[in-house]
């Protein structure tokens, strides 16, 4: 069973384990420190996860990953950026798409956000497929817009509008 919940102090060790897996962090923002320490995880649980609509993805009682929506500011306040990651043991099981559907429903029902968007590194075909599967449309490709670990990536921009 897949559920979305708030992060808890008991998640700290598993967050450290999951976010020190290069396969998991390969296409994630460098906002996530590397190596990822218990202090980083504690900050996330106690403060960082509370700054937006961020939820732990739990599968059968075990922390599997994270999904969240960060609201824009000022004239972009009715848009939110969707982001997510899963531990490698949970890939290719429909977990991320189920979690995405849950948070999309929650955000569109419980907030005034009208547009969700996501940015995806070129090469992350699984994430692009997931977004299409849950109803997002690719809007643009920004050439060489991402630079991580000495390499350029194109940034694929996807969006989903709230249905009236």
TrEMBL record:
**Keyword match Cell cycle:** no
Give the EC number(s) under which this enzyme is classified.
2.3.-.-
Q: Does the entry feature the keyword Manganese, yes or no?
A: no
Q: Which InterPro entries match?
A: Acyl_CoA_acyltransferase, GNAT_dom, N-acetyltransferase
Domain N-acetyltransferase: residue ranges: 2-159
Q: Which GO molecular-function terms appear in the entry?
A: acyltransferase activity
Q: Which UniProt keywords apply?
A: Acyltransferase, Transferase
The source's superkingdom equals Bacteria
Q: What is the uppermost EC class here? A: transferase
Question: Of which family is this protein a member?
Answer: Belongs to the acetyltransferase family. RimJ subfamily.
Name of this chain's protein: GNAT family N-acetyltransferase
Provide the species name: Alteromonas oceani
